[in-house]
Amino acid sequence: MTKSIIFVALLFLSLRAAVAAPPKDTCITCHAALGGDLAKPASQFEVDVHHQAGLSCADCHGGDPSDDSMNAMSHAKGFRGAPKKNQIPEFCARCHSDAAYMHRFNPQMRVDQLSEYLTSVHGKRLKQGDTKVAACVDCHGVHNILAVSDTRAPVYPTNVASTCARCHADPAYMKGFDIPTNQFALYEKSVHAQTLAGGDTSAPTCSTCHGNHGATPPGVSSVANVCGTCHVMNEQLFEKSPHQAAFAKMGLPGCVQCHSNHEIVRPTDAWVGTGPQSVCTTCHTPGDKGYGAAQAMLADLTHLDSSLTRAAEVLNVAERAGMEVSGPKVELAGAHEDLVKARVDVHTFDAAAVGKLTDSGVEIAAKSYQAGVAALRERDYRRKGLGLALIAIVLAIGGLYLKIRQMESGDSIGHRGDVERKAREV
After folding, report:
1. What is the pLDDT of residues 406-420, one digit of tens each?
2. How far is it between the farthest Cα atoms of the chain?
3. CA 57 to CA 70: how far, in whole Å?
4. Cα-atom radius of gyration of the chain, to the nearest Å?
5. Cα–Cα distance between 79 and 68 in angstroms, integer?
6. Is the model more confident about 1 or about 112?
């Protein structure tokens, strides 16, 4: 009986060990022993997302990972080796375009990457034999592919621009493509790049506007639609403006005409108007309708902005003095919203519409300013009252002190008289 129990226990432990033991992979052990560049795939694959999912070298390259001999890489055992550059998209797509297979790992993963890639400039040129264009491994890596959500991944939002720049910012590599190589340098100056660097991964990067697998530069006719995916209100207002039709007629890109494309900096009110920073004067000249509208819009925006600053300053002084001005400050926030809306409404290029919003904000700002002035008057009144009260208190205390001194002096004289009288009697 005891022997049977021992036998069963040993059998259970051996089965458990067999299940727990990783499958034999001669690809890893062999390449790790080779050293140099041939050892890199084995060392890098440890962090690869495919390895983490339980896949092995043979899942991509074929062959028999359980065979210790060179026969492991025979074509008879399905060995495919490393694909050529023009074979890579289809090579990866054997799995990534198979919905049934990919859903075993992630039901939400897209499986249309190959079809999108084939519509891109990269995909089309690769089909034509241009092996300098980007394929899957150029962006994602080869044996050390990380999940897109991994901050170390070259395709993580904060790394995308640098990944694209490996090719697109290299003048020698891009020679012959007739594409500027300063896009990355310009993008780094942009408000988009600054916002992304600040930790907001929803901020636009290269793939946001150009696409990722279906990478193709947005044309003049579609650039407004690209910007409008985020700046919806601006796009809708621009479409109703006189500039929309005029730009389309002249073949000018809408948003890019004023904001540029890669070096998109934070706009200021000075962009409107006719000053040295104005973008309106690139097209409009003194005397035309647009020139006058630009001047009017800038004047209204400047007036509201200065009114808000003036009101905020007096309310802040009153608040620091301990006065209750929370109500006027809330109302002033509404005037700030009018300024924001007016700056957005500039895209209508309708001076009357902008003026309507700024007039509303100026009216609120004026009321808030008066409330702040009234609060400071109340502060001064209270201070005067407090000063008079302090003076009265000091006078009262002084009078009381003198009275006490007088009483003490009288008692002292009376006491000396009693002493002298008793002395004479003796």
Report:
1. 887 766 666 566 656
2. 149
3. 15
4. 40
5. 14
6. 112
Contacts for 215-222 with beta carbons within 8 Å, 24 or more apart? 215/120, 215/121, 215/122, 215/134, 216/119, 216/120, 216/121, 217/121, 220/251, 220/252, 220/253
Angle at 404 between CA 399 and CA 406, to 5 degrees: 95
Which pLDDT belongs to residue 415? Answer: 58
Q: Which of 257, 266, 259, 258 is nearest to 191 (CA)?
A: 266
Alpha carbon distance 304, 309 (integer Å): 9
| Contact partners, residue 291, CB within 8 Å, separation at least 6 | 274, 280, 281, 284, 285
How far is it, in rounded angstroms, from Cα 153 to Cα 49?
11
Nearby residues of 275 by Cβ (< 8 Å), 6 or more positions away:
298
Using CA atoms, how far apart are residues 338 and 359, in angstroms rounded to an integer?
Answer: 9
Cβ-based neighbours of 383, under 8 Å, separated by 6 or more = none
Output DSSP code: residue 99. H
Provide the angle, in degrees to the nearest 10, between the axes of the packed helices 326-345 and 289-320. Answer: 160
- pLDDT higher at 29 or 170: 170
**CA distances for 299 relative to 153, 269, 287, 335, angstroms:** 48, 10, 17, 16
**Residue pLDDT, tens place only, 62-91:** 999 888 888 889 888 889 889 999 999 999
Compute the C-alpha angle 327/338/324, nearest 5°.
10
Rounded to whole angstroms, the Cα distance separating 29 from 27 reads 6
pLDDT tens profile 325-343: 999 999 999 999 999 999 9
Q: What tokens appear for 328 in the block?
A: 């006027």
Taking Cα atoms as reference points, which of 280, 283, 306, 276 lies closest to residue 293?
Answer: 280
What pLDDT shows up at residue 215? 76
Q: Answer whether 0.85 is exceeded by the pTM.
A: no
Q: Return d(Cα 8, Cα 397) in angstroms, integer.
A: 103
Q: Which of 377, 350, 379, 367 is nearest to 308 (CA)?
A: 367
